[in-house]
Amino acid sequence: MAQPRIQYKTNAQMRTMREAGLVLIKALDAAVEAVRPGITTAELDKVFAAVLAEAGATSNFLGYYGFPATICTSVNEEVVHGIPGSRVLGEGDIISIDGGAVVNGWHSDSARTVIVGAADPEDQRLSDVTENAMWHGIAAAAKGRFVGDIGAAVDDYVSSVPGKPLGILEDYVGHGIGSEMHQAPDVLNYRTSHRGPKLKPGMCLAIEPMLVRGGIETKTLEDDWTVVTTDGARSCQWEHSVAIHEKGIWVLTAPDGGASRLAPLGVTPVPIP
User: Fold this and answer.
1) Per-residue pLDDT tens for 127-176?
2) Which residues contact 84 (CB under 8 A, 6 or more apart)?
3) 3 state SS of 159
4) DSSP 13
5) 229: Cβ–Cβ under 8 A, 6 or more apart, which residues?
């Protein structure tokens, strides 16, 4: 079977994706700042949507295969694709907020995890390890030769963390991004013998590890969207969209292009020419 073609972007197209990324940063900032005990996930969706509207951007989530909101709000045992609604956040909940923005037909995609109020230390560890794993994957996109090097870097980092092992979900992975939200290639979050395509200038990738405190088995609820851990263990997601160009990489959905988090990993991101 033929593999889906990878879309290689021009510098101008990637600069437009950066514009979408900057809008998305503001929208996620607003949604994260609004998180508190007593707020509903639907209210968080309204906060996010208002920032997109003010910027003149559109949502790539709303209407995607019928998805009814502008963000995914996945709480506690919900892994991905949680639908915002009447659920009220409580003290100690862990919520992953995943959203995207489109500017002039070019997409951005990013996710952050927030703990509501006082954090269980193990939940904080889960979020910290997931976020760090994402940055190790992004560094591998800069230093590696193949897309598979990203998953290997994520896997190697997570496996090296002391303490109780955390599971890396295998059913849901990262992806290419550009004139559509989901494109080739798949970006795995774990090590395999398959190297994947070569990392080349013009590639834009959404790198998004999802980790769990328990087993990696999942199921989809009756709404046909919300994915939960079958054992009820808590989960976490972090995601950034990353552009690879002839001068280096630039994290499209990080304010500083990823400079502060990549420096300790030996990578200096370069703005898109």
Assistant:
1) 999 999 999 999 999 999 999 999 999 999 999 999 999 999 999 999 99
2) 40, 41, 42, 44, 45, 69, 71, 72, 73
3) helix
4) H
5) 77, 79, 212, 214, 215, 216, 217, 218, 235
CA distances 120 to 31, 84, 92, 94, 193, Å, are 21, 23, 7, 9, 36
Cα–Cα distance, 156 to 163 (Å, whole number): 15
Token reading at 153: 């870097």
**CA–CA gap between residue 153 and residue 135 (Å, rounded):** 9
Q: Are 207 and 239 in contact, with CB atoms under 8 Å apart?
A: yes
List, in sequence order, every residue forming a beta bridge with 100; answer none if it has no partner: 109
Which positions ≥6 away from 104 have C-beta within 8 Å? 16, 19
Tokens of 30: 């607003």
* 226-255: pLDDT as tens digits: 999 999 999 999 999 999 999 999 999 999
Architecture of domain 11-265: Alpha-Beta Complex (3.90)
Which long-range contacts (C-beta less than 8 Å, at least 24 apart) are formed by 7-13? Answer: 7/176, 7/178, 7/179, 7/183, 7/184, 8/200, 8/201, 8/202, 8/203, 9/178, 9/202, 9/203, 9/204, 9/243, 10/202, 11/245, 11/272, 11/273, 13/106, 13/178, 13/179
Tokens 């989960």, residue? 235
CB atoms within 10 A of CB 4: 11
pTM above 0.85, yes or no: yes
Cβ neighbors of 222 (< 8 A, separation 6 or more) are: none
